[in-house]
Amino acid sequence: MMTLPHALRRWTAGMEWRRESVGKSGAMVFRLEKGRQVQYLKVRPRDNRLEPLSREREVLRWLERRLPVPEVLDYEETRSAEFLLMSGIPGRMPMDLRVDKSRIVRWLGEGLRYIHELPPDPCPWSRPNDLLVKVAAARVEKGWVDESDFDPHRRGRTAEELLDELLRTCPREEDPVFTHGDYTLSNILMTENGISGLIDWGRAAVADRYTDLAIGSRSLASHLGSEWVPFFFKAYGLNGVNWEKLRFYRLLDEFF
Ligand SMILES: Nc1ncnc2c1ncn2[C@@H]1O[C@H](COP(=O)(O)OP(=O)(O)OP(=O)(O)O)[C@@H](O)[C@H]1O
Ligand SMILES: [Mg+2]
Q1: Band of the pLDDT at 22, cuts 50, 70, 90?
Q2: Domain segments of the chain: what residues?
Q3: Fold classified for 94-253
Q4: Residues 159-201: tens digit of each pLDDT
Q5: Which residues surround ligand 2, an ion (CB under 5 A)?
Q6: Which of 45, 168, 200, 237 gives a 20 to 30 Å CA spacing to 103?
Q7: Is residue 212 annotated as a catalytic residue, yes or no?
Q8: Looking at ligand 1, which residue's alpha carbon is closest to its atom 18?
Q9: 231-254, pLDDT tens digit by residue?
Q10: For residue 73, how far is its CA from the centre of ligand 1 (angstroms)?
């Protein structure tokens, strides 16, 4: 199983461990607690198909003074795995919070706008559409796309069919901003005062703002109900929805 690197043992000595989740991208997440101290340890096997945890570490460091994100406490790597230890963000995921849905949805929209308004200039990561489409095509070629994980309305279709559609529908105009890259409700923590922090930054980059609008609205619809999506767009400050882009970025997500 998992052998903890020596340096990490110093950090985690005496902490009470609880297994949190296994994410889509193959990371194991543990919650570590001692008294009022809460930390999270993310462990990911080395695998070319997965985004390395070292990238998430770099993004977290870059964001440290820019947004409410976990502090990186330690990062270790062994031949077979990577380990990222970070501080715990207080609060709950929006779907578990006992607050009016209208307030939650407003915070989600305003929070996303806030992220997108970070100056993108000094951001070292960029994911323009042509790059994303190339990576998607390479993943299809290598057989890395999980067809069993497609959204229900795409089940039964092949990765090649979806790639054809992706190439056909790739938007010409891009509107790049700093994006989270996986703005789902389970990556946002809130208290009754609003967003307390944002996690899971491994896919952050300068990219079209619709990458987050597409994933965010889909996650919101599935957790809180599709009737809330227009309120999310309104709180974000969107004037008119570009449905082609929404569809394209949701489709793109099937390849990763
Ligand atoms: N620093 C943190 N503070 C509070 N909660 C956290 C923190 N890190 C992780 N969590 C909890 O653990 C869950 C999983 O963590 P995270 O989203 O980073 O992993 P994941 O979804 O498995 O990621 P990936 O898909 O990138 O592997 C989160 O939804 C959240 O509930
Ligand atoms: Mg997550």
Answers
A1: low
A2: 6-87, 94-253
A3: Aminoglycoside 3'-phosphotransferase; Chain: A, domain 2 (3.90.1200)
A4: 999 999 999 999 999 999 999 999 999 999 999 999 999 999 9
A5: 187, 200
A6: 200
A7: no
A8: 200
A9: 999 999 999 999 999 999 999 999
A10: 15
